[in-house]
Amino acid sequence: MTRQKRGPAAPLARPPRLRPGSRVAVVAPSGPVPADRLEEGLAILRDWGLDLVIGPHVLSVHPELDYLAGSDADRAKDLQAAWCDPSVDAVLCARGGYGAHRMVDLVDWAAIRAAGPKAFVGYSDITALHEAFALRAGFATLHGPMVATDAFLKDPAAREHLRATLFEPETVRTLGLDTAAALVPGRARGVTFGGCVSLLAAGTPGGRTEARGGLLVIEDTGEEPYRLDGILTRLLRSGALEGVAGIACGSWQECGPYEKVRAVLADRFGPLGIPVAEELGFGHGYAAPTIPLGVPAVLNAPSDGGRCTLTVEVPALL
Question: N vs C: which end of the chain shows fewer Cβ within 10 Å?
């Protein structure tokens, strides 16, 4: 039997943009959420003019595994209930941590698909859900700051970029910080996919078997260079990057001296013969831009030392 190819060849369904009065659900698919940080984040969302609904288990803590925000079943139930509520316009994650991989197969993805696309925001551990929304529902999502994290509460630039993406997506189509440069020069077009690279390498049932037609966007935190080497090697050997058109690299917070990280990226990706841009800044670093996943984009990594950019060809939201 021929293995079914799963990759980002076609753009995914984009959700409607938010407006003042839009109803937004906040859920915790991964780690437990401190109540004070949640309240601080909710106050900001209310200042944006949003009507909020909070998942019943957002403040739950698993009775034995205290690194989880309640049971796998409850976390999956909160996500599915929020998505399938026709009054909810967007679903925002409260934080990452660990646990999305544990609950992703408990979600009824047919019901999610039937409910249609909505804005979905998160990063880090939420990468597992970005992949599921792409591959199981066919929906574009947003790799961006979460409601109860420093990236949202203490980073005005990252927070404002997310707000603009949600409300005025046509204003933030060229992505990447001024630090961006070409690791391997060139220009590529494709559909964006990716996130936290260690989560991508971990894989999920029904995951990608190739990347033909795709632009990979990756970042991570707390992975030393030798561990990052192993992560990238596993990803390459899995075949999940087969046919990838280009690679955009974000932040590598607490991954060791950047010159060593750069050496790993160059060693693992250089032989692919495709454009690779570095230091676009999305991910766990300060002032990280929100990156749309599942939309057509152009990666420009000029050889003359000019600024690299990732430009989405359409607004992230309709």
Answer: N
CA–CA distance, 269 with 255 (Å, rounded to integer): 18
C-alpha angle 7-208-144 in degrees, rounded to nearest 5: 85
CA atoms within 13 A of residue 87's CA, in its CB half-sphere: 7
d(CA 131, CA 206): 10
* Beta carbons of 143 and 131 less than 8 angstroms apart: no
In tens, the pLDDT along 92-131 reads 999 999 999 999 999 999 999 999 999 999 999 999 999 9
Name the residue among 107, 131, 128, 133 with its Cα closest to residue 118. 133
**Catalytic residue ranges:** 124, 219, 284
Residues of the chain under the 50 pLDDT cut:
1-3
Q: What backbone phi and psi angles, to 5 degrees, belong to 72?
A: -60, -45
φ, ψ of residue 181 to 5 degrees: the values are -150, 165
pLDDT in tens, 11-26: 999 999 999 999 999 9
The neighbour count for residue 156, using CB atoms within 10 Å, is 10
